[in-house]
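[Help] Beginner question about ligand-bound structures

Sorry if this is basic. My supervisor gave me a protein sequence and a SMILES string for glutamine and asked me to "get the holo structure". I don't really know what that means in practice or what format the answer should be in. Inputs are pasted below exactly as I got them.
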Amino acid sequence: MNEKKAILVLEDGTCFNGCSLGAAGETIGELVFNTSMMGYQEILTDPSYAGQIVALTYPLIGNYGINEEDVESYKLFLEGFIVKECSPFSSNWRSKIDLSEFLVKKGIVGIQGIDTRALTCQIRDFGSQQGIISTIDFDRTRLQEKAKSAPGLTGRDLVAKVTCEKPYDWVNKKGTPHLSRKYKVIVYDCGVKYSILRKLAHAGCSVHVVPAKTSFETVLEMNPDGIVLSNGPGDPSVVSYMIENIKGLLGKRPIFGICLGHQLLALALGLKTSKLKFGHHGGNQPVMDLSTKKVEITAQNHCFAVEIPSQGMLHKSTYGDVEITHLNLNDKSVEGLKCHSVPAFSVQYHPEASPGPHDADYLFDRFLQTMKS
Ligand SMILES: NC(=O)CC[C@H](N)C(=O)O
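Answer (accepted):
No worries, everyone starts somewhere. Holo just means with the ligand present. The predicted complex, written as structure tokens, is below.
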């Protein structure tokens, strides 16, 4: 273990002393804990973690290294990383680099050797808060002040920070776009995970990714068969340009929203979103499909959620009835919705992720069916 000191100070003054992991320096972000036992590479490269410091609850992380295939983005957008113990060596046939080297290379400041269980209990009991990791300043009062004055996630448009600058086609292994495909899908990149693009390509779609600020008129001119609203970081309620785009697309083409995309679709339909106490981040969240009563084990990563409409599971929107289709069995929060009069549906969880189970794969088939009809 790197013996260089590091400190984590929370907004409320709680302090953890540990060792530096990754780059030296200082970083501030909203603290979240992720309960996945593996998949740290996918977590690190998920753009939805922009603005956040991620603590992993599983105690030993890094033992299968980092490979070239499992990245979810070209860049790391999270603010910091916390583990109990980073494995000092890694072993896997695909591994190209150790986790700690990878973090240094990507400039991510982290801390290890702290009681991640105590940190998790703190976040779970008192809710998420800002935290600061430092390897250069150990003055607790000063660090706490900095954490307190950090902006937080609410009211911040982080999509603008992570969306692609230019449109691009998702290419196959030979580097050419999948053009002669059955369905042409436009993906609004709000911080898209590559697994979504991989799944769509695997399902037989040609996949065109566009920046989040692309107008709905431009998207319609491209004549897609369907539109995917991707995952992404931050507070959905302030991403007004996406909400306006969705309003322009509803009823014109089939829409499938994933995570932030689900929240944005809900907002466009007149529903509300709000922040959860500490969010859902992990690979074993139980979700019930209310129409079949079937329970799926799902991967999730979100801090905000769609509120249950005051009149119950059916919401009257200007686009017709909107039904809440899925609920989280842990806290009964909204996990999915569908429109009755226009082809649009969405889920709060990640059907493209497979933290073991592939329970939610069927949603891609459903999207294909919607495009077909
Ligand atoms: N993974 C996501 O798309 C996250 C959605 C949103 N930023 C949230 O935290 O709730």
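A couple of things worth pointing out: The first helix runs from residue 40 to 44. The pocket of glutamine is lined by residues 48, 231-234, 259-260, 301-304 (CB under 6 Å). Feel free to follow up in the thread.
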